[in-house]
Q: What sequence folds into this?
């Protein structure tokens, strides 16, 4: 057994890590846009990157290091993704790391988010880095420095207490907002831990954790060039248990995913789409993801319209085995469609509409074909989404 | 050689066909919602239906007839899709055809569009049918009877003159608006001809024509339960030429597709997405369709923002062979990205913005990997789209 205790102040709790952020002038009103995470000692690092074919320069720069390299410094910036910037994008990162006044940094990593296709303003970034307080414990500023269209910062920390009296921490900051889909779009997440976790466990647990969290959410179905999740371990605490670590990591990634969704551009609601009784997990996932990505479903959610026909139609279009005679659709626990109840009566419609007024709820589709299930998470599509994305660069 | 001459009044021109429409009271203000197409003689018919697994009752009813059956009557209605209505939906169609006062109808067909999951109001439809003027030539009323969120009716007619002095007509009415994507969603199209076309040519030419027209357009990427394209030939004219028929049919389906897109819910613009230089036609099609479906691309089009990064990112996410060093992106003939011109200068940005102010324009992505190309068509995503679909049933 083990205890998971939620702590404030994100990665400030994790032994041996410092962090912070300053303004380089990229954002308006002196808001922070360049930040760092620094470890007193060398860290193992596991990464999961975007599946986009045009991987951004920071990802290419990361991949220049040898396998199983260790690092003690991560530099982050917003407002410029340093993507589709060619060799210049990679050279700019090298130039920055060669020209900053930070002693003893080893294999430094950069991570960027923002607009595609413009070169980094490297002098401004160097100037910002030279203003870092490297001894600060300021997770808040670092979390703010990676925000783009996010309306609130996202950080989380768990203290994990084991039965032997030992304990360790896992904490994370991340940014999300638009362009979030099952392939983890425009999403940066930095997870740091002081647990004494073996490198082999890091990769395995991180990959599995992402499949049911960041890869299960959809804001708009787009996949960016920069998506990155890092798990960084400095092993400062002499404490580790694989099961406990898995639980804590899954808790963190799942909850950050839901925060991203809640903060989806212009989004007001988080809806879980559970598809049960599919012939395979892959089919369940395909149908659930189709629901979370459908514009017509999203707009019906925004309009609080229990139009289950759009749910059924989307399931039918997702190219999975299904049968309208076996299908059941629920809004939370309100049955809105089955072969026996094919027509939405007024009373049921009122109950379903009431469910749809909640900030978050679940739409369940029981296929009754097989035994596999998957839950994807989506949000509504609002006027605000269109506005934010029509004007993104300005 | 042959001449294609555009005529007004849609299917009124086609010899041996009558059509019309009345109000059954489903729409407000006495707008037409039930219509018909009737032929003096029996017709061959070819059909292409939705790929949605939950095919609507009218499609199941059609499939009960023997292969190569002939018909002389098509009944259409809007406001109710008769989809996911089980056996009752099929029985309702039979009931309607058994209880209307029209002599000599053989193998009648029904086609419906509207909300999913409600039984047809069959008595109201029967009453409406009994008010049809079966001798009317009123393509306009029939085209209006199938409109849902369409803001204008869609009809088209070509007279095809052959070198031997003979001629025939092809005409069509269709409805589209939302839920249009490369799998032909919420789209009904009735193409009628008096050409003496062999049945084998009908199926072949219809299928090929749809692949580059209705299947190449996207309003919101959803696929409905009811999509149908019929080609109906009464062979009243002793005239036919396969090449001429193909050209005329392709002209009609392509132009109706563009009308549907122009009328996409809340849409203001039609954009052609041409992907050139792909390794296969399939890859070109996948990338072009991804562009026409991307929410971020659609909102950038709405915002008239030449943010080519979103174009590149969407290409990169579409899982095709591509290379940022070989990629070129154009807005009409304005080059906005290539390896040699990676940064959007102010002058080019102004030129590209000017292109984006046009009602229709083309975005070309030259992959420079292979020789295959495909053009998909999309529209913008506006506040209006969200509004229409949030309130669809009310």
A:
């Amino acid at each position: 057994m083990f205890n998971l205790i939620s702590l404030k102040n994100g990665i400030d709790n994790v032994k041996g890590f410092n962090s912070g952020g300053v303004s380089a002038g990229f954002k308006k009103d002196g808001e922070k846009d360049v930040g760092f995470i620094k470890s007193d000692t060398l860290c193992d690092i596991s990464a999961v990157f975007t599946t986009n074919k045009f991987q951004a320069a920071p990802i290419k720069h990361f991949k220049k290091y040898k396998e199983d390299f260790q690092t003690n410094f991560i530099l982050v910036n917003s407002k410029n993704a340093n993507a589709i910037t060619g060799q210049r994008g990679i050279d700019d990162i090298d130039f920055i790391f060669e020209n900053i006044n930070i002693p003893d940094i080893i294999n430094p990593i950069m991570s960027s988010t923002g607009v595609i296709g413009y070169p980094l303003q490297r002098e401004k970034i160097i100037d910002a880095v030279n203003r870092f307080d490297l001894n600060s414990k300021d997770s808040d500023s670092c979390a703010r420095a990676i925000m783009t269209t996010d309306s609130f910062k996202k950080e989380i920390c768990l203290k994990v207490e084991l039965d032997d009296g030992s304990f360790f921490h896992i904490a994370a900051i991340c940014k999300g907002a638009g362009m979030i889909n099952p392939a983890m779009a425009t999403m940066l997440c930095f997870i740091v831990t002081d647990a004494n976790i073996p490198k082999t466990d890091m990769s395995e647990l991180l990959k599995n954790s992402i499949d049911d969290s960041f890869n299960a959410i959809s804001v708009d179905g787009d996949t960016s060039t920069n998506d990155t999740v890092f798990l960084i371990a400095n092993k400062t605490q002499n404490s580790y248990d694989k099961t406990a670590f898995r639980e804590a990591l899954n808790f963190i990634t799942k909850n950050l995913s839901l925060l991203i969704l809640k903060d989806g551009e212009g989004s007001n609601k988080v809806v879980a789409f559970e598809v049960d009784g599919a012939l395979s997990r892959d089919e369940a996932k395909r149908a659930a993801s189709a629901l979370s990505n459908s514009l017509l479903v999203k707009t019906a959610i925004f309009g609080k319209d229990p139009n289950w026909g759009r749910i059924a139609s989307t399931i039918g279009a997702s190219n999975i085995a299904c049968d309208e005679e076996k299908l059941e659709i629920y809004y939370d626990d309100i049955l809105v469609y089955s072969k026996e109840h094919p027509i939405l009566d007024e009373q049921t419609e009122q109950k379903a509409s009431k469910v749809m007024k909640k900030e978050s709820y679940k739409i369940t589709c029981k296929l009754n074909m097989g035994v596999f299930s998957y839950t994807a998470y989506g949000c509504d599509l609002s006027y605000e989404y269109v506005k934010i994305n029509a004007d993104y660069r300005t």
About this structure: The radius of gyration of chain B is 22 Å.
